[in-house]
Amino acid sequence: MVATEINEILKPKKVIIVSSAKCRNELPFQYKFQKAIPIYRIIPKWLIKKSTFIVQPLFEPDRKKEKETCIAMLKDKDPVFLKRTIEMIVNWNRVDYDPDIIHIHGDNDHTIPIKNIKYNYLIDGGSHMMILTRTREIENILITLMQD
């Protein structure tokens, strides 16, 4: 999502996104719903952080493969940062995007499900955590893209 916005400003030769969304239409219902009914606003910051330890493994089963890394990442997250991030995603309004953005996505991503994604490269069985768990496959795609 950030790469889509930065692309508008910097106009790089290539933009490659992994396990992300290029516009609001690619986000799942739970984010769109929160814009209309912003439940996240009444949830305390500390509870958002605590709930990520419980909810993320349910949404992203692949997380178990890199459990220690994921736990460390979540522990390092500031609760204010997490809540602000949710707010930014929920209120993101981009409806169009540069069609030249290269999108790598997994078909087992439960955070941003594949059904709404217009992707260029599909990682079979790849989850939202595939940048950690499917590194070789993604690396091979990136090497190919950088040679073009």
Key features of this structure:
mainly alpha, single chain, 48% helix, 148 residues, globular, Rossmann fold, 7 helices, three-stranded parallel sheet
Q: How many domains comprise the coordinates?
A: 1
What's the CATH architecture? Answer: 3-Layer(aba) Sandwich
Q: Largest beta sheet, briefly?
A: 3 strands, parallel
CATH superfamily membership: Alpha/Beta hydrolase fold, catalytic domain
Shape: globular
Indicate the multimeric state: single chain
Give unreliable regions as ranges. none
Helix content: 40-55%
CATH class bucket:
Alpha Beta
Strand tally is 3
Amino- and carboxy-terminal Cα gap: 24 Å
Can you describe what's shown?
With 148 residues, the chain is mostly helical. Helices cover 48% and strands 7% of the residues. It has a three-stranded parallel sheet, with helices on one face. α3 packs across α5. The protein is globular and about 45 Å long.
Task: Map the helices and strands.
Blueprint: H1 2-10, E1 16-18, H2 29-36, H3 45-59, H4 67-76, H5 79-90, E2 102-106, E3 121-123, H6 130-133, H7 135-147
Parallel strand pairs: 1-2, 2-3
Summary of the model, kept short:
The protein has 148 residues and is mainly α. It has helices at residues 2-10, 29-36, 45-59, 67-76, 79-90, 130-133, 135-147; strands spanning 16-18, 102-106, 121-123. It has one domain (2-147): Alpha/Beta hydrolase fold, catalytic domain (Rossmann fold, 3-Layer(aba) Sandwich), CATH 3.40.50.
